[in-house]
Amino acid sequence: MANRIFVMVLLWSFTIQCVAQETDSSHTKPDQKKLRSFIIIGGTGYAAALVGLDQLWYKEAGRQPFTFFNDSRQWKQVDKAGHFFSAFHISQATSKSLQWCNVNTNKANFWGSVTGFLMLLPIEVLDGFSEDYGASASDLLANTGGSVFYFGQTALWNEVRIHPKLSFQRTTYPGLRNDNTLGNGLISELVKDYNGQTYWLSVDVDKFIKFPKWLNVAVGYGADGMVYATDQQNQTAGYSAHRQYYVGLDFDLSHIKTRSKALNTALYILNLIKLPAPALEFSNGSVSVNVLQF
Fold first, then answer.
1. Is the confidence at residue 21, as pLDDT, over 60?
2. 223 with 197: CB under 8 angstroms?
3. Scanning 16, 103, 120, 144, which has the fewest C-beta atoms within 10 Å of its C-beta?
4. Local confidence band at 70 (pLDDT 50, 70, 90 cut-offs)
5. Strand ranges (DSSP E) for 73-196?
6. Strand 286-293 and strand 277-283: pairing?
């Protein structure tokens, strides 16, 4: 289900950045006009996204009584990393918007984190009523983890120092299936092919020791060889699904400030992505050096 919420986090982050830019610290109480604008625009966009998701993913699927489905052992848990990533960034984007509305920073961080969890909850409900899916307790746990990870950092350091990021590169695996499970074309593969997704935690090292502000150290997780969801299915079909771990460098674009609202929005979205940089890969019991790991 991470593919669906990945689309939602991009839409939400884009909407937030278009609405909210600079915070006016001179106000001592929430700006009601800004708050109403945020609620109306954000709420309308969110409702439209849910309707679109229902039509796109659930329209053709049969309905069932609400049911849980245990998918915790599928796709080497790469999809759970996607849930964590999405909940974190929805929490952060919402907090930034509330601060733009001059809501107290601590309150904005708390309610942003709560919103990050609650915004993903209806998708689990839709899954629970769909014959093709079923609600997932492990998805809910990953959603909670992403929101808590955001709030915990702001509570501990009054800022975010460890940033979840995503990178993607196309693989040959979608062509091995004819049911579109892994996508068919770049856009659908981006959100469906877990083999191509790598999730990172990019650390602002300069916040801990003397280090260039624009350069981060990142640890990443992904998997390869997953034509089917479970290890048993892959082994039966002759594929060797395995995990991949990375340690490498990353670039922090958050220090770039411009007068252009459009460019600031683009930089914010781009900073969700781990840019190509040298990294060590630990996979299948061996270590390799990747000059430009994406």
1. no
2. no
3. 144
4. very high
5. 162-168
6. antiparallel
pTM metric for this prediction = 0.90
pLDDT for 86-113, tens place per residue? 899 999 988 988 898 899 999 999 999 9
Which residues lie below 8 Å from residue 187, measured CB to CB, with a gap of 6+? none
Report phi then psi at 10, rounded to 5: -65, -45
Sign of dihedral through CA atoms 51, 56, 59, 61?
Answer: negative
Least confident of 4-8, 53-57, 201-205, 290-294: 4-8
Residue (of 283, 282, 281) closest to 291 by Cα position: 281
Q: Mean pLDDT score of the chain, rounded to an integer? A: 86
Q: What is the C-alpha separation between 26 and 3, in angstroms, rounded?
A: 40
How far is 70 from 59, CA to CA, in rounded Å? Answer: 23
- The DSSP symbol for 67 reads -
For the CA atoms of 199, 269, 42, 56, the dihedral, rounded to the nearest 10 degrees, stands at -60
For the cut 70, the answer to whether the pLDDT of residue 15 exceeds it is no
Among the listed residues 46, 160, 192, 143, the one whose alpha carbon sits nearest the alpha carbon of residue 95: 160
Question: Rounded to an integer, what distance in angstroms lies between the CA atom of residue 133 and that of residue 69?
Answer: 7
Contact 87, 152 (CB under 8 A): no
- Domain locations in the chain as residue ranges: 1-159, 161-294
Contacts of 259 (CB under 8 A, 6+ apart): none
Q: How many CB atoms lie within 10 A of CB 278?
A: 12
How far is the C-alpha of 185 from the C-alpha of 99, rounded, in Å? 39
